[in-house]
Specification:
- The structure is a single chain.
- The chain is built from three helices and five strands.
- It is of the alpha+beta class.
- The chain has one domain: Alpha-Beta Plaits (2-Layer Sandwich), CATH 3.30.70.
- A five-stranded mixed sheet has the order 2-3-1-4-5, with helices on one face.
Amino acid sequence: MTQNVFWIFELTIKEGQIDNLKKIMLEMVEATKANESGTMAYEWTISEDNKKCHIHERYEDSEATLTHLATFLSQYAARLMETGDATGFVVYGNPNDEVKKILDGFNAVYMVPIGGFIR
């Protein structure tokens, strides 16, 4: 099985916060792309009515995940959570206990691999 850690995080956007969300998203995408080589995917999508945002993130392993989480928590978490409420967080792969301890603060649901493959 893969050592990757990946998830879909759902944010329900607060009224009047779409522009702030987009501003924070641009900062986070630029910083992640420039500074986190262990980030394999970092994609933000939004519903047609601008009420839901899904963030798909994939990391090589738990160490790369911890690198991202350290930056996120210190620089972006408070600002992002002002724009919306966490309404879904499903985690896949094999996060270690240290990663889980952090993600538990966002009410993560863990899906345990039971089969399949990744190319």
